[in-house]
Write a structure and sequence with these properties.
This protein is 84% helix and 0% strand. The protein is built from 18 helices and no strands. By secondary structure, it is mostly helical. The radius of gyration is 23 Å and the shape is globular. The longest helix is centred in the C-terminal third of the chain and has 53 residues. It has two domains: 215 residues, no CATH class; 260 residues, no CATH class. Keywords: Cell membrane, Membrane, Transmembrane, Transmembrane helix. It is found in: Cell membrane. This is Lipopolysaccharide biosynthesis protein. Its main location: membrane.
Length: 505
């Protein structure tokens, strides 16, 4: 029996090894990318559900404060050199790895030092003394991450995403085991802290186990300058993105309470998971593929259309599903103390669907050598959000915060991104909107069916209600897609068949 299982596993791994032509590599790598993100995010969601039962909203909020501070330093110091190496047309970038490693270690040391020095200030800013020792502890993670094998850049550049799967999952599994185990023993925020540190230690080991290349100390200033020329826009975009993605956490933690931040972050994580993880998976594959196609305008435009089609096919029904199942999910899995996260989950799900849809545009601009486009658009978004977030939060609490963020993005930024992206690949606005019409229609049918079904399920346990709604939603959406696809020019079936064919090849 064991031999059969080993043989079956070898067959699966051999079938899914990213090789063959570009289409086959892309599809197989995409499967690994989806597996990575769904596996990592799935473990994180399960971990958060368990921790929600064992810890308090304040514990979650304390770790949230620490992670926001850590993320701020991480984002604003992001060098962008890994993206620069992926974008370069040559397949072999070994000569840059030593310089990349040196910069990486220096960055990790600086982040760790700043965390230690700034920890009392952060604790004072949020009015939480416990934050100081937490920040000093997670400074170790910055040092560990600086030692990662720089050759992991090849996992993405060469579309060897089966290795990236192993790399990321080593950290996710370790964090899950350590955090959950210690939560039963310690019963406080330190269980999450130790799990966070253990994850980076596991990834450090995996980075050297998965690639035979070993970095040295041959740092070259000319290489660093060359990479910074591209990476500076990634650094700027990363810093702005932090303010957009995590700046709201700072505002909630400052204006409201640590428990409110715990509710906000829990709702945000759970709401974005179904809609945004697919886009992250495709982004991992799309950027290197777009980079390879940057000289072929027609092929690039076709690849972008396929990406939009697949993203909208998956993200729109996921958003509708979260909106209609958030209440039984929270009541059944998290418990009554977490009810304030429900509206946050619902708003984030809608925001996440549109964010997922437009995520491919960033990869287009990076691949075409215009990473500044995203930076400039995000500056506008940051200005609008920054001007309104204070009154929105003080008047409406966490719902006002997330509502403002979603509103600015969906109503202002999405139309701008769509227009610039379509122009970048010489595409058609009409075709783009047509591609969106079909999944929107199928998702609306699914949403109507679930809304009509909910009253009939109101008397059963919350977990059973959630499961019934999910099963019914999947069934109705599949049926709606089949009807819409048979009566229109929607090519989603062709895309899915292409994916299956590429996997088998």
């Amino acid at each position: 029996m064991l031999d059969r299982l080993k043989s079956a596993l070898r067959t699966v791994l051999r079938t899914l090894r990213p090789d063959g032509d570009l289409m086959s590599q892309t599809v197989k790598s995409g499967i690994w990318a989806v597996g990575t993100n769904l596996g990592s995010r799935g473990l994180q969601v399960v971990m958060m559900i368990i921790l929600a039962r064992l810890l308090t909203p304040r514990d979650i909020g304390l770790m949230g404060i620490a992670l926001v501070t850590y993320s701020a330093l991480n984002r604003f110091s992001r060098l962008g050199i890994d993206r620069a190496l992926v974008q370069r047309p040559e397949a072999n970038v070994d000569e840059y790895l030593d310089s990349m490693w040196g910069l990486q270690m220096a960055r990790g040391a600086v982040i760790a030092a700043v965390l230690v020095v700034a920890s009392p200030l952060a604790a004072s800013f949020f009015g939480e003394p416990v934050v100081e020792p937490i920040l000093k502890a997670i400074a170790l993670s910055a040092l560990v991450a600086g030692l990662f094998n720089p050759s992991i850049v090849y996992f993405e550049k060469s579309l060897d995403l089966h290795k990236k799967f192993a790399f990321n999952m080593s950290g996710s599994v370790t964090e899950f085991v350590v955090a959950v185990s210690l939560a039963f023993v310690l019963g406080d925020v330190w269980a999450i802290v130790y799990g966070f540190i253990a994850a980076d230690v596991a990834k450090l080991v995996a980075s050297y186990a998965l690639d035979s290349r070993r970095p040295g100390f041959d740092f070259r200033l000319d290489h660093a300058r060359e990479l910074f020329g591209y990476g500076k826009w990634i650094t700027a975009t990363s810093g702005i993105s932090f303010l957009l993605v995590s700046g709201d956490d700072w505002v909630v933690g400052w204006l409201l309470t640590t428990a409110a931040l715990g509710f906000y972050q829990m709702g945000y994580r759970l709401g974005k998971t179904p809609t945004m993880e697919l886009s992250r998976s495709l982004s991992t594959v799309a950027f290197p593929v777009y980079s390879k196609l940057q000289g072929d305008a027609d092929a690039l435009a076709d690849a972008v259309n396929k990406t939009v089609r697949v993203l909208s096919f998956a993200s729109f029904p996921a958003a509708v599903g979260v909106v209609l199942t958030a209440d039984p999910f929270v009541r059944g899995f998290l418990g009554e103390q977490w009810l304030p996260v429900i509206p946050v989950m619902q708003i984030v799900a809608v925001y996440g669907a549109f964010s997922s849809l437009t995520s491919a545009f960033n990869d287009i601009w990076n691949a075409l050598g215009h990473p500044d486009y995203n930076t400039k658009i995000n500056l506008l978004r940051l200005a609008l959000t920054g001007a309104l977030i204070y009154p929105a939060t003080t008047r409406y609490g966490i719902v006002g915060t997330v509502g403002l963020i979603a509103g600015v993005f969906v109503l202002v930024i999405v139309p701008i991104k769509v227009h610039v992206a379509v122009r970048s690949v010489n595409g058609s606005h009409r075709r783009f909107l047509t591609e969106l019409m079909y999944p929107v229609l199928a998702s609306a049918v699914m949403g109507g069916a679930l809304y009509a079904l909910r009253p009939a399920l109101s008397g059963i346990p919350a977990i059973a209600e959630f499961v019934c709604l999910v099963v019914a939603g999947v069934a109705v959406y599949i049926a709606a897609v089949a009807v819409v696809e048979s009566r229109s020019t929607w090519e989603i079936r062709s895309d899915l068949e292409t994916v299956l064919g590429a996997v088998r090849s």
